[in-house]
Design a protein that fits this description.
Elements: E1 34-42, E2 45-52, E3 57-64, E4 69-75, H1 80-85, H2 87-94, E5 99-100
Antiparallel strand pairs: 1-2, 2-3, 3-4, 4-5
Length: 104
């Protein structure tokens, strides 16, 4: 049995699908790319650690299903886990404005 050989390689490969990150990024207009890094739910309180990849910003989003309250706290890279684990303490310290919960 012989092994087939390729005599000529293509000069340029064309993408088969659109790259969703090609047109978005720092300094480029468009929809922000937000990734969920961690999430926990306890007693109706949903806490999410989100990374806005477009702006390179960390945010902790909290939604209380019982009361309908919701708030977000910006977190620096060194404090993101502390804010994620204790969002109410950081919200009280920073006086984060509360809003009504919205569907996510």
């Amino acid at each position: 049995m012989t092994t087939p050989t390729i005599s000529e390689l293509p000069r340029h490969l064309e993408p088969t699908t659109a790259d969703p990150f090609l047109h978005f990024g720092p300094g480029r207009p468009g929809a922000p790319v937000v990734r969920e890094l961690d999430r926990r739910v306890s007693d109706g309180i949903d806490v999410r650690l989100l990374w806005n990849q477009t702006d390179d910003q960390l945010v902790v989003a909290v939604v209380d299903a019982k009361t309908g309250d919701a708030f977000e706290i910006e977190a620096g890279p060194g404090e993101s886990l502390a804010v994620f684990h204790h969002p109410y303490a950081h919200a009280a310290f920073r006086a984060a404005p509360r809003t009504e919960a919205r569907a996510i």
